[in-house]
Amino acid sequence: MEEKPLRLDKELKSIKNKLKYTYRTKKCKFCGHKNPHNYIYCEKCSRPLTTDQEIIKEWLIQKYLLLLLEKISDHPDIVATRRKSKIGKVEFDYIIELADNSKILLYVVQEEKKIVDIINEVIDYNQINKEKIRLVFLLLLNQSGPNNSIIPNVDDKIINDAKNYNIEIIFFDEFL
Questions:
Q1: How far apart are the first and last CA of the chain?
Q2: Is 77 exposed, middle or buried (0-12, 13-18, 19+ CB in 10 A)?
Q3: C-alpha span between 159 and 120 (Å, rounded)
Q4: Which are the contacts of 175, defined by CB distance < 8 A and separation ≥ 6?
Q5: Helices and strands counted in the chain (H then E)
Q6: Which domain, by its residues, includes 42?
Q7: Are 133 and 122 in contact (CB under 8 A)?
Q8: Most-buried pick from 7, 19, 33, 136 (CB within 10 A)?
Q9: pLDDT score, position 50
Q10: Are residues 42 and 74 in the same domain?
Q11: Model confidence over 19-55: pLDDT tens digits?
């Protein structure tokens, strides 16, 4: 007679384990929403549920591009896009060429100290090429929670120098 309760007990444990696996969730650090375990992005706020920097970097690029496309009436037609392309010594994550011969350069900031070097490199490039450039620094999220991105400390002088060479500098953070 003890065989049935033991067998039933094993079956119950097996079912509980399957349910535990099936309904395992990942809680979003930003909005608190519980997501299925296999999700990479929160289904409520769309932010990354992972600490994998490459996934977060890609998400940030896509987030900016989506906002850009939503405001497409503010921009001339996109002629070409390139990923991982260099201007001077700097490899940008994304370059968008527009019909009015201007460029949007996207760079995901992982180290604040590189920002000034990148701005100087783009200034050197534009002294020769004299293009209209929008230099967008995508601020990588700190995974500890909202409003914890890398906040750049850039001197106003370099921002003004860039403006003198027809370079607009934008620091993009989805929380700003």
A1: 67
A2: exposed
A3: 10
A4: 146, 147, 149
A5: 4, 7
A6: 1-49
A7: yes
A8: 136
A9: 79
A10: no
A11: 554 456 788 888 999 988 778 788 888 888 877 778 7
The per-residue pLDDT for range 100-142, each reduced to its tens digit, is 889 999 998 877 778 999 999 999 999 999 999 999 998 875 4
Could you tell me if 71 and 108 lie in one domain? Answer: yes
Taking alpha carbons only, the member of 49, 167, 155 closest to residue 102 is: 167
Residue 2 corresponds to which tokens in the numbers above? 């003890």
Backbone angles phi, psi at 152, to 5 degrees: -75, 145
Question: Rg of the chain's alpha carbons, rounded to an integer?
Answer: 23
Beta bridge partners of 168: 134
d(CA 63, CA 174): 8
d(CA 132, CA 83): 19
Q: Is 28 exposed, middle or buried (0-12, 13-18, 19+ CB in 10 A)?
A: buried
Residues 79 and 75: their CA atoms lie apart, in Å, by: 11
Q: 148 with 160, same domain?
A: yes
